[in-house]
From TrEMBL:
GO terms for molecular function: alkaline phosphatase activity. Residues 17-114 form the Phospholipase D N-terminal domain. It comes from the Bacteria. Keywords: Hydrolase. This is Alkaline phosphatase D. It holds the Pfam family PhoD_N. Residues 128-469 form the PhoD-like phosphatase metallophosphatase domain. Its EC number is 3.1.3.1. InterPro entries: Metallo-depent_PP-like, PhoD-like_MPP, PhoD-like_sf, PhoD_N, Phospholipid_Metab_Enz. CDD domains: MPP_PhoD.
Amino acid sequence: MTPQTTPRALTDNPFTLGVASGDPLPDSVVLWTRLAPLPYEVGNGLPADGAVDVQWELASDESFRQVVQRGTVPAPAADNHTVHLDVRGLAPAATYWYRFRAGQWFSPVGRTRTAPAPDASVTGGARFGLLSCQQYDEGYYTALAHLAAEDLDAVFFVGDYIYENAINAQAGARNYTDRPLPDFFAHWTWNLDDYRLRYALGKSDPDLQAAHAAHPWYVTWDDHEVENNYAGDISQNNDPVDVFRARRAAAYRAYWENMPLREACRPNGPDALLYRRFQYGRLAQFDILDTRQYRSDQAYGDGWQYPGPETDDPARTLTGDEQERWLLDGFRASTARWNVIPQQVAFSRRKNTTADRSTLSMDAWDGYPASRERVLAGVRQAGIANLAVLSGDVHVHYAMDIKEDWDDPGSRTLGVEVVGTSVSSGFDGDERPDDWNLMLAANPHMKYYDGRRGYAVVSLDDTHLQADYRTLTGVLTPGAPVSTAARFVSEAGAPGFSAA
């Protein structure tokens, strides 16, 4: 029998990292918390073995007068004292509130929402947040405070939840002078303790806690959850494969521990099944991708390079063969009004010169053109009329049309791509970066480009998709206001963005 820690022995508040919910189904949602009375210490200030019993409640009202379910669940030391509670038997399209208790301590209250029934019409449509790239030492998470106040059904986080870089005592741009960080953070993440503590640092941010408590999240990773621009088993610095796989195993384990994910996503060493599919009534099908774990190595390096024979090799893949088959099979079986692909890196072509031949990003889908063409061929063959790709990674807002022929602006538009800017990565950013005019001239399918921090809100109904691009005045000091910098619409059955 697993030894238990008596909750009454908790002399300090263990709910320092908040609560979260995620991966909502019509009858189920995952509830998450992590017990950490000492969040910046290895082991969270709790015993190194056994488990702590945690009570939980789920109610249909915020005051918890109408408790729907309650129980007790262990927070095992082996899982860094995290809880991943898969609550079942819930009503579809319903809002619930939840909380945890350990000893005398209550967690913050979280709000969550289940998905509609598979055959349901989603009257009034649905609204989703799009987030990515929150580097702790490059700015405050003010965007997340604003997102917490939005009226949303769920949030898509598409990568770079943490960064692996060393962080000084002043937390970089946050300039902590009155409460410096422990020296532990002043080195790059390599082992399990490193990654666990890096999540504790990020999750200690009150704005991130608020955003998790306000909405259920669908999450996927990109590269910085492990190491910048890694590709499968190949590290950016070409470390020995066994060394890098050990690092990847630690990173994947810490990721699962700290995200509201089901047991099916628990890693097995350096491998984890993170791509997954969700139905949102008859309105949408979400195919959430993992474009890091299975990809071929970047051609000609991982920066902006001229494409060549290696780039065009049809054997190269961004998704891996198995995930690609899963995606195309999902297209063929889909009966949803909208097919939505939340994923990591820019899908549409991005030239950085108006010349016929241009350098392209080898780390994005541009570096894997055959892989992208197979996906688009699957879209055409399945007769998908309303395709939307949701992306992050590049720390800017883009609105882009997905073209059948990237060299012919008049060719058929197969869908639209919403690229959301970063939460904080890249510091304040500029409304019009230095290459603003050039990028828009070189890419006629690019309808919008903004380099400031923020997030996007994507609204869907039976008639159209709407992308609202929210931006902040800055992230170097907390509390900046947010505004809607642009709004673009794509009509159902007639894909292509137009300003609204």
